[in-house]
Design brief:
2-enoyl-CoA Hydratase, Chain A, domain 1, eight-stranded mixed β-sheet, 17% strand, alpha/beta, single chain, 3 domains
């Protein structure tokens, strides 16, 4: 056979592989409002940067008529490309081939690029669109999932792992995204659940739609499984690109620096009057977070989940930072079960990938009540404490207003190895609010006075003057300085530069026993 014939044969096979399940299946995918695997990769990656591996792989199953059903690629497109010039490894499940179901060959393709990513030190991005395990392959399909899960765990904290749910993700398939660092979903085509609506109906006699059971809104706002939610598939893929801009390629690198357009010595004059005079009046902490960041840009993570704690990424003088902030605009910014878990996971990610942490504190305490106590606020609140104490990246806190009780300690206090703690003049650092403290200390004494209300008001003011301010903590060296709020950005950038060479370690051990 002549060379020209060989090339022609190669091109025929390659074109067949690129068609996946064929024109009819691609048309059906488009009718559902979904892109194909290759169309998604074209949006995700830099133009003409994708290099595909294993395009000609086929399954080896012989059971239940599978010996007559072969398609090149076996339902998943894998390879590498670049995002903003940085190498990333990708896999995109192809629903046009057997519903994107996972069999042995399909899993081996994914495992191959995960192994490569670990050797090279580059992120892995998975685009999930699969009906689940390929039933015809039996235990081989389950083994394939297990092999992927094992690699997810081995790669955790070594290379970034990002999962974008582009269609169904059900059964055992959900646990791979759950192990990865970030899960992204869109309102139009994404859903995840361990068991589908039909099984729920059969077992529990409960009627529920696919969207109600495991749609994007549910996982972004209630379960906390998804950290990002977008309107469309394209929006989701662009979010992945944006997110990667804040993250290093592996745990041995520093976060990607971008030459700043904003100035390092920019004052934020509005901060001098942003805290309400009434300590019980809410305000939006995002007004502070955004204004202190370069170009007022803040990429919020888990925006719809546990809104009493804000977490996300920003840049300070060009350098990425992770931000954790209590949100007084939502249930007074208290810490509860969901916000503690949300904060702990974000802090641990930043610590694993050398991203400095900034904390903006205004917390009246932990949420009381039987629901929280019985749900495990002690155990879950301890997760946030553990994560912050364990973190060795540069850690800076700004106490904006309330810093009460155990919550003061948990929000990156000096006692949990904070490197720098600043306070605004509006800060109240105390065991509790003045009214509650006065009630405990002077309740019996007040009962023996002529005017108990007047007496208690005086004692409340006395406690306020003595303890509900930043100066007692400053006297003890628990905070570095009480600063003018308008200088916050300037002071934070200077402190981050000072801490850029920080080296800290935890005691040698296999691993700690986090209160999971």
């Amino acid at each position: 056979m002549e060379n020209a014939d060989l090339i022609r044969k190669l091109n025929v096979k390659r074109n067949r592989a690129r068609l996946g399940g064929g024109d009819r299946s691609i048309e059906a995918q488009h009718k559902k409002g979904k892109l194909t695997a290759r169309e998604r990769l074209k949006i995700l990656l830099d133009p003409d940067s994708f290099e595909e591996f294993d395009a000609f792989v086929i399954h080896r199953s012989q059971d239940f008529g599978m010996d007559a059903k072969h398609a090149f690629g076996d339902g998943v497109v894998v390879g590498f490309g670049t995002i903003d010039g940085r190498i990333v490894y990708v896999y995109a499940q192809d629903f046009t081939v057997s519903g994107g179901s996972l069999g042995k060959a399909h899993a081996q393709k994914i495992c191959k690029i995960m192994d490569m990513a670990m050797k090279v030190g580059a992120p892995v991005i998975g685009l999930a669109d699969s009906g689940g395990a390929r039933v015809q392959e039996g235990i081989d399909a389950l083994a394939g999932y297990g092999d992927i899960f094992m690699r997810n765990v081995s790669a955790s904290g070594v290379i970034p792992q990002i999962s974008a749910i582009m269609g169904p993700c059900a059964g055992g398939a959900v646990y791979s995204p759950a192990i990865t660092d970030f899960v992204l979903m869109n309102r139009q085509t994404s859903y995840m659940f361990v068991t589908g609506p039909k099984v729920v109906k059969t077992v529990l006699n409960e009627d529920v739609t696919t969207e109600e059971l495991g749609g994007a809104v549910v996982h972004a706002s209630r379960s906390g499984v998804a950290q990002f939610i977008a309107e469309t598939e394209q929006d989701t893929l662009l979010q992945v690109r944006d997110l990667l801009g804040y993250i290093p390629s592996n745990n041995m690198e520093e976060p990607p620096y971008v030459v700043p357009r904003d100035v390092a010595d920019r004052r934020c004059e509005e901060f001098n009057s942003i805290i309400p005079e009434n300590p019980n009046t809410p305000y939006d902490v995002l007004d502070i977070v955004r204004r202190v960041a370069d170009d007022n840009v803040f990429l919020e993570v888990s925006q719809e989940f546990a809104k009493n704690l804000v977490v996300g990424f920003a840049r300070m003088n060009g350098h990425p930072v992770g931000i954790v902030a209590n949100q007084p605009n939502y249930v007074a910014g208290v810490l509860d079960i969901d916000s503690s878990v949300k904060g702990a996971r974000f802090v641990r990610f930043c610590d694993a990938f050398n991203i400095p942490l900034l904390f903006f504190e205004d917390v009246p305490g932990f949420l009381p009540g039987t629901t929280q106590e019985h749900g495990g606020i002690i155990r879950n609140g301890a997760k946030l404490l553990y994560a912050i104490a364990e973190a060795t990246v540069p850690k800076i806190t700004v106490i904006l207003r309330k810093a009460y009780g155990g919550a003061y300690i948990v929000m990156n206090s000096r006692h949990l190895r904070a490197d720098v703690v600043y306070a605004w003049p509006t800060a109240e650092i105390a065991v509790m609010g003045a009214a509650g403290a006065a009630e405990i200390i002077f309740r019996r004494e007040a009962a023996h006075t002529d005017d108990p209300d007047k007496f208690m008001a005086e004692k409340e003011e006395e406690y306020q003057d003595r303890f509900s301010n930043p100066y007692r903590a400053a006297e003890q060296g628990y905070i570095e300085d009480v600063m003018e709020p308008a200088t916050t950005r300037i002071r934070l950038i200077r402190s981050l530069e000072m801490l850029s060479g920080k080296r800290d370690t935890n005691p040698p051990r296999k691993h700690g026993n986090m209160p999971l």
